[in-house]
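Spend some time on the protein that follows and explain the fold to me:
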Amino acid sequence: MTSIREQIATLLDARLQAIADAHGGEYERDPSGDPTGWPAISLDDEGQEPSDEESGVTRYAMSVAIEVYSEGSSGMAVSRELNELHAEIVSTVMTPGEPPFGGLVERVEEGPLKRFTAPLASKPRKGFRQRFTIIFTTRRGDPASQ
């Protein structure tokens, strides 16, 4: 049986890949190298913490960060694209409606957004990193169960 964490990550992969495809970019989970296409979207799994234990159930707080890089003809154009991508990503991850992620998740909490500029890039290149906390439960001692 596939773990709940992997099921959540697989759903995020599909959603983020769709955004990258719509913008002619690339997507990768936990990338090991620099991007080659723009915009570049990646999902970084930052682990989890047990946040609560109840009778037979463990509640987890899974941390993920989504990084996006873009380049273009001007800083303003890149910044505009990043703002649009950010809006799409937040609305996709926050999954309006109930239950989130088809019932795998109790809730998603939006974390801090950090913006940055690549200082030595050959073209205007900027990016952001948006963190999310995903709250889900499993049967105590069985991370593949719900």
Remarks:
- The first strand starts at residue 26 and ends at 29.
- Helices lie at 4-22, 75-93.
